[in-house]
Amino acid sequence: MHALVVVAHPRRDSLTAATAARVRDTLFAEGSTVDVLDLYAEGFDPSLRTADEPDWADHTKEYSAEVRAHMARIAAADLVVVVFPVWWFGLPAIAKGWVDRVWNRGFAYEPSTLHGTRMLWIGLAGASSAYYARHGFDTALDVQLRVGISEFCGIRDARVHLIYDTLEEPDAARVDEIVSSAALAA
């Protein structure tokens, strides 16, 4: 299996980055090949420009070289794992911009080239699971990411896994717990 692990956090010493590194290591240990796409480290620009805006009259539009390179990395993956901090109860801007620019018409939808791909969204949330449930944020994130993005793009095997109470500093035991609870192999 080949996996693409996408990281969406500006600090390399964050719990998000540590979780993504552990996901990578776990997948390697299970015999997978892994491509790590660190959106901040690679200088990804999340701003949608005309070159990457969908053309509703032409589903074969050729997007920018940067976007085509990201599309190729997604297309090469059997499993896409997006590891991100939950900010304002959603994706951070860089991850949302990545979806806006890269998961584009003629690649991700109309038509989708991603059928058969598996997807796991791992969101690290600062608040408790009770807080998320009380306000419906857990359900909203699941519907937005699993249904609104993954399933819309033809990915039927998609899960959203939220990790709660993540404001403490990363330590090996906590990161292992997070990755184990995400059930990468499932």
Structure characterization notes:
The chain is of the alpha/beta class and 186 residues long. It has a single domain, classed as Flavodoxin domain (Rossmann fold, 3-Layer(aba) Sandwich), CATH 3.40.50.360. Helices cover 37% and strands 18% of the residues. It has 6 helices and 5 strands. It has helices at residues 15-29, 65-75, 93-102, 129-135, 137-150, 172-182, and strands spanning 2-7, 33-38, 79-85, 118-124, 157-163. A 5-stranded parallel β-sheet has the order 2-1-3-4-5, sandwiched between helices. Strand 1, helix 1 (15-29) and strand 2 (33-38) form a beta-alpha-beta unit. Helix 1 (15-29) packs across helix 6 (172-182). The longest helix has 15 residues, at 15-29. The radius of gyration is 16 Å and the shape is globular. It starts with a strand and ends with a helix. 37% of the residues are buried.
> What's the CATH architecture name?
3-Layer(aba) Sandwich
The overall number of domains is: 1
Please count the beta strands (DSSP E, at least 2 residues each).
5
In the CATH hierarchy, the third-tier topology is known as Rossmann fold
What is the CATH class? Answer: Alpha Beta
The number of helical segments is 6
Q: What is the chain-wise order of helices and strands?
A: EHEHEHEHHEH
Radius of gyration over all CA atoms, rounded: 16 Å
The helix fraction, in percent, is: 25-40%
Lateral strand order in the biggest sheet = 2-1-3-4-5
Structural class: alpha/beta
> How far apart lie the N and C ends?
13 Å
* Whole-number mean pLDDT: 91
